[in-house]
Amino acid sequence: MFFRNKKILIIGGTGTIGKNIAKHILQEDPEVIKIFSRDEYKQFELQNEVNGNSKLSYLIGDVRDYDRVLSAMEDIDYVFHTAAMKHVSFCEYNPFEAVLTNVIGTYNVIRAAKQQNVKKVVFTSTDKAISPTNNYGATKLSAEKLVSSAEYSKGSGKTIFSTVRFGNVMGSRGSVIPLFVKQVREGKAVSVTDLSMTRFMMTLEQATILTIKSLQISKGGETFILKMPVIKLKDLAEVVVEETRKKYGIDPSAVDIVEVGLKPGEKKYEELMTYDESLSAYELPNLYIVPSPFASRKTYKKASRPKPGTYSSEGAIPLTKEQVRKLTNEQNLI
């Protein structure tokens, strides 16, 4: 087993992805998993979720604080960097705060990992980093560049850095499905930014497994991109309304779906890979691998070269409404 007797640090370890990574890795009998985050209450909640498992230790700290990150990485084998400011509108209204967490924080992780001779680091990014129209995407793009260039700037260092690029994780904290359910249960209109909007969607399990697998197979500087379905926001909203009504016995006539317009910085569609990236990418059955422009050419087992093109949710064939319904029910999201 890959993580057996290893020491792992999960930065942002009380977030949706971080917690699930910890629960997966616990099954492989690691020596220790250190949970690093700012919120003591969320750490307390996680401690209760895992019944006080002695393999987990808890570190209060902020990724913006280099010295704290450096001490947290002492004697660590593998690092998962999942901490971020993630909400588009909050990053728009607090742009430098997003820079401090998403850019400076990532730089701190890279510096500390090199200093402490960590074996591997994987950074979690977003589809919003491609052709960004908002500050969140711009900070994540900058962080991606820092990670890929670390392969060039690490000199004789042995640490391997890589990035995972996500779409939207269904049911994660702050995502639209819990919001829609809450609005229906409270008898409010369901507020949708734009009914024609499309998004890449992945399950929490897919996001977790992709992140862990990417760390395992990374060779230096790559960006890993999961192939994932596209969902129309209109279909998702309708399914959540219908299934929530059914589950809680709510009068169908009591629920409206209202378009409220795009928030500052929001896009109607998302991209996961640019045309230029596709020219150098490799393809595996479930994911694409974009190598670092700074790293020597690597080969990947059973990988082929994809057809050049932009990997975009615009114009892609979305899941049918019934497929969306099946997915939300399978994931117990309502």
The average pLDDT score comes to 94
Which value, in Å, is the CA radius of gyration?
20 Å
What is the first-to-last residue Cα distance? 34 Å
- Beta strands, count: 16
Order of helices and strands: EHEHEHEHHEHEEHEEHEEHEEHEEEH
Q: Going across the major beta sheet, what is the strand order? A: 3-2-1-4-5-6-10-15-14
The residue fraction in helices comes out at 25-40%
Low-pLDDT stretches are none
Structural class based on helices, strands and sheet pairing: alpha/beta
Classify the beta-strand content into a percent band. 15-25%
Q: What is the tally of helical segments?
A: 11
Outline type: globular
Largest sheet: 9 strands, mixed
Give structural notes.
The chain has eleven helices and 16 strands. The model has no long low-confidence stretch (mean pLDDT 94). The protein has helices spanning 16-26, 40-49, 66-72, 88-93, 95-115, 135-153, 176-185, 204-217, 233-248, 275-280, 321-330; strands at residues 7-11, 32-37, 56-60, 78-81, 120-126, 160-166, 168-169, 190-192, 198-202, 223-226, 230-232, 257-259, 271-273, 282-283, 287-290, 311-312. With 334 residues, the chain is α/β, with parallel strands linked by helices. Strand 1 (7-11), helix 1 and strand 2 (32-37) form a beta-alpha-beta unit. Helix 3 (66-72) packs across helix 5. Strands 3-2-1-4-5-6-10-15-14 form a nine-stranded mixed beta sheet, sandwiched between helices. Strands 7-9-11 form a three-stranded mixed beta sheet. 39% of the residues lie in helices and 19% in strands.
